[in-house]
Amino acid sequence: MGLGREEEIETKTTPVFRPGTKVRATKYVKNDGTFAGRDVGEILVRKGDEGYVRDIGTFLQRYYIYAVEFIDRGIVVGMRRRELVSLDDLPKEGRAR
Length: 97
What we know:
Elements: E1 22-25, E2 29-30, E3 43-45, E4 50-59, E5 63-70, E6 75-79, E7 84-86
């Protein structure tokens, strides 16, 4: 009897993104009820939205949570590594939507 799929413990390594890194969302992010002032289920971030990492925290001492400021949307949302891609590492032609 297993506990389900085992995931790596991200916090054993250094964070993938640093504060100031320009990133793009790779997934839609809906409010799960933890974002005050917005309805549950409301889309906070759309796939392709671009922002900047402001801060890095952890969740359950296992995962890095990146506080990403989406300037066009006027919000800061906590996101996981798998939900982001760095734009600072891409050549200019790869940055087009």
